Every structure is written in structure tokens, then in C-alpha cells.
Amino acid sequence: MYSIQEFVLEIMKQKNITTKELAKRLGYSNITKGIRRINAFLQYDEYNATIIDNLHSALDVPKDVIAKKLEETRQQIEKERENNFKPFLYCVTTYQVPSPIFVCAITRSYELKKVELPHNFNDLTEEQKMLTIQQAIKEHNEKVYNKYGGIIPAYGAIHAYTLVYAYNANESDLPVYTPDGTLMENPPKEYQSIRLGVATVGFKGGRKNIAVLFKDKIRVEKN
Length: 223
Known about the structure:
This protein has 223 residues and is an alpha+beta fold. It has helices at 3-14, 19-25, 31-42, 49-59, 63-84, 101-107, 126-148, 211-214, and strands spanning 88-93, 114-116, 151-152, 156-164, 176-177, 200-203, 206-209.
């Protein structure tokens, strides 16, 4: 359990605050919905902005105490994301933001924006890395061509593949490859700007939305 959940449960126990009472204190007019949101929060399925922004007043504790617990939680999740990180290729397409969005949702074409690489990728020799990248790009291109005629729905044509080799890698250091697997010299900076959606973290039970904790600090989905 993360710091913020431990703290909330501790205060609820100390002050004998039920989940129903907490929902009222958080300002939910629909108590059933509030209880559902709180349970999701306590099970770290979701970090809801309504809960995060009003937790200090609902529990009657200083705002900076909540901020400290949230920061501890953010760091814990950051560490978890780092430990779970696996190198991948980011597929650079005509449109960075899918349009129309419903096509992306229906086809799940966003899954084609990320090409997984082996866990041991960083332990390979430079020659092995290049061969692995070229093979991954070839297979990805074939998959997109066979399924969608070479165009990723809602994202457009493939322009390049950017290698994200480490969790904390600087964007300016990310290598970029052409659709035929050739390393680009001096690639456009926009090709090194990786955007894969809201911040989430993977668990055994699924994926948890943690975007509200990062306040736009994290915009790269890397696991």
C-alpha cells in the first residue's frame, strides 16, 4: 500500500470516519458514487482529482501533510515504474494526437504506437541491438501493412521509430530510426518527443490511472 492510502486509512480509523461520511465530507452529492470513488482510491485503482483536492479538508488535516504524502506516493510509483521499465520503440506518425479519436478507441490503434523490445535489450552488443531494432521495425511495418495497408488508424503514416532505452533517458539523447531501420543523423526534435497518453502504472490486476499525481510532470507512458 502506498503512503497516501496508509495515511487516509489511519486518519479514518483515528477519527472514526466511515467511507460514507468521507464521501459527504468530500462534497459528493451522490453518496453511492462517492463511496465507489473512495474505494477505488483506497485500492489504488484511481487517483481522482476531487478526492485529491479535497482530502485535507475532509480529513481535517493540514494541506501540506497531504501534499507530503502524495509526493511520497508519487516517488513510490516512480520507483515502481522505473523497476518495471522495458525498452521500446515509439512509432512516430503523421499525427501525434489521434484524429478522429473514436477510430483510435474502436481499433485500439494506440497499441501500435509502442513496439516492445526484449527485457535484456540493454545488455546486448551494439550489433545485436541494431539487428533487434531492425527486426522489430520490420515486423511492425508488416503488421501495420497487413492489417491496415500501412496506415495506423487515426495516426496516419509511419515516419520513424524512436528508441526509448531507459526510463530516465533525456529526449535529446533518444536515437531515431527510419521505417527501414536506418539510424537517422540529426533527427527532428519532434521525433524525440514521446507522447503515449495519460500516466498509468501496471499492476497484476490491470492498469491504474495516476495522472493526477504527476500534475503534467510525467507525460511518457513507459511500461
